[in-house]
Automatic annotation (TrEMBL):
The lineage of its organism: Eukaryota, Fungi, Dikarya, Ascomycota, Pezizomycotina. This is Elongator complex protein 5. It is found in: Cytoplasm; Nucleus. Residues 299-332 are annotated as: Disordered. It comes from Immersiella caudata. GO terms for molecular function: tRNA binding. PANTHER family: ELONGATOR COMPLEX PROTEIN 5. InterPro entries: Elp5, P-loop_NTPase. One of its GO terms (biological process) is tRNA wobble uridine modification. Pathway: tRNA modification; 5-methoxycarbonylmethyl-2-thiouridine-tRNA biosynthesis. Keywords: Cytoplasm, Nucleus, tRNA processing. GO terms for cellular component: cytosol; elongator holoenzyme complex; nucleus. Residues 321-332 have a biased composition (Acidic residues).
Amino acid sequence: MAPSAQAHHRSHSLLLLQKLLNLRDSASPLTLVCDTIEQGAGPLVREVISRAKFARSKVIFISLATVKRPQDADIFIKARGKSLKILADEINTHIALPSKGTASTLQKYLLIIDTLNPLTTPLQTHLLPAFLTSILPNPCTSLVAVYHTDIPSPSQTSPYTPTPLTLLYHLATTVFHVSSLAHAIDSHRAHLRSLPAPSFGLHESREGVLIGLAERQNGIVLDMEMRRRSGRAVAERFILTPSSDSKTGASIMLLADHPLFAPLQVDETSGKEGEEGETTFSLGLTEKQRRDREGIVLPYFDAQTEGGGGEGGRILYDMGREDDFDEEEDEI
């Protein structure tokens, strides 16, 4: 890929992520954030809320697991124990319906659901599409919902019923999978050494208290998949690094641009690899080795040249003193 094409792809991907995080032009009405116990969706959700407040959007936080009201939430709704119908009616009381001629001045809303897992019981899973549609009454409303993928889903009443995660994948316009940057770096280093990828968290299958790794890298990895209106999906991997200053937003970059994930660079003049390879030997050739290789005469070189002595497919061979001439083999 040419450098200009690489720069265009990088700029396009970063601008698309900025557009999604800023909730600009209703880029994604329903954003699904999938996390695990190894890496929660908190940094991404806080960044979306912070940008929504900067854009003067109204933040409605729908709590199914959160006890305390988030700092930047304008409205805090406790949803545990309520049916989907009652919950939808309560949410819609805080959202103004659009009217003709006011599209440009319509108030923007950001809905946050801290976890969808309690709403995916066998008795409620088939009601999720209608519920999610009912709480998005106008085009200026965006919904960001979190789903914990490491929590086992309850058994379905029918084998033909899709799993809750499959249904949410189908409904969502953008899906984010969050993971730890420290875990991704360790897995990448193991891949460079052709070693098995390490396991973390529940995949370690270790008994006792689950203790996460220390935060050696300040950031999370975002695996993004955005579905456009044409049906084409755009997939990319990013690194989001939260900022300690609330006034400045988090920094984002492509995963491929991170120094530890950059591809190995080979110097064409010297043939030596960069230090990222961490090999104990050189795969390149020195200038003397290259001159010696070019001076080697290949076997049967005379038969390969045009006008040589090997016309007709004959192979020229000069016997040496150590060769034993066999008349029978020569006749054959």
